[in-house]
Specification:
With 203 residues, the chain is of the alpha+beta class. It is built from 3 helices and 9 strands, in the order βββββααβββαβ. Strands 6, 7, 8 and 9 form a 4-stranded antiparallel sheet that branches. Strand 2 and strand 3 form a beta hairpin. It is globular, with a radius of gyration of 17 Å. The N terminus and C terminus are likely disordered.
């Protein structure tokens, strides 16, 4: 079993600079997205005292070790959960601060903790239909259904995060990448691993 890493934000999430179209604003976990014709204000202050769960060694076979009370998930963990838990109700009930009733990351969610990345090689196609070249090879942030980027704190600090629009349509099934969002931190290429059971965990 992996060691659980929980970080206390001591009074809430620190404010981060994010972009929405051409506009910039200071964002905190308790605020709603600046979407057009917002008719209902959702109060997320209840989540400000939650602890951040982050564990870079966590695998899909250890998802059941993630606390389900009073925690926020960092982006790497959120991606792992999205890729392996297919039940929307389970996602929402287990981690309501991260996922809405449709099992989608909340539109008001900002990147947290470790980033979720995928290795891209020449010939890979991103969610917008762009084909990667040899020069593009490297690590890219994961996008859930082409709508929510899971770039972690590193991408947010670099000013790459765009708040999701109020109108949205899935751009791909599951996880994808965008050539426009190359990871700020480039690590060594992934080592070739033995074939593993990639079946989803239907929780």
């Amino acid at each position: 079993m992996t060691k659980l890493h929980l970080e206390n934000f001591k009074g809430g999430f620190r404010k981060s600079e994010v972009r929405f179209g051409k506009h910039q604003r200071v964002w905190s976990a308790s605020e709603d997205a600046p979407v057009a014709r917002l008719t209902r204000s959702l109060d997320y202050k209840i989540y400000d005292h939650y602890l951040l769960f982050t564990d870079i060694t966590l695998t899909k076979h250890q998802i059941d070790t993630i606390p389900k009370t009073g925690v926020r998930l960092d982006d790497r963990t959120a991606a792992l959960v999205l890729e392996n838990v297919s039940n929307a109700a389970t996602l929402n009930e287990s981690w309501p601060a991260e996922f809405d009733t449709r099992g989608m990351p909340r539109a008001t969610r900002v990147p947290l903790g470790h980033a979720a990345k995928m290795w891209v090689t020449a010939g890979d196609v991103d969610v917008d239909g762009n084909v990667a070249t040899e020069d593009d090879q490297g690590w890219y942030y994961k996008w859930w259904k082409g709508l929510q980027v899971l770039m972690g704190q590193e991408g947010n600090d670099a000013g790459l995060y765009l708040i999701r629009p109020s109108h949205e349509f899935d751009q791909c099934a599951g996880m994808g990448f965008k050539l426009s969002h190359r990871a700020v931190v480039q690590e060594a290429p992934p080592a070739e691993e033995e074939d593993d059971d990639d079946d989803e965990l239907f929780l």
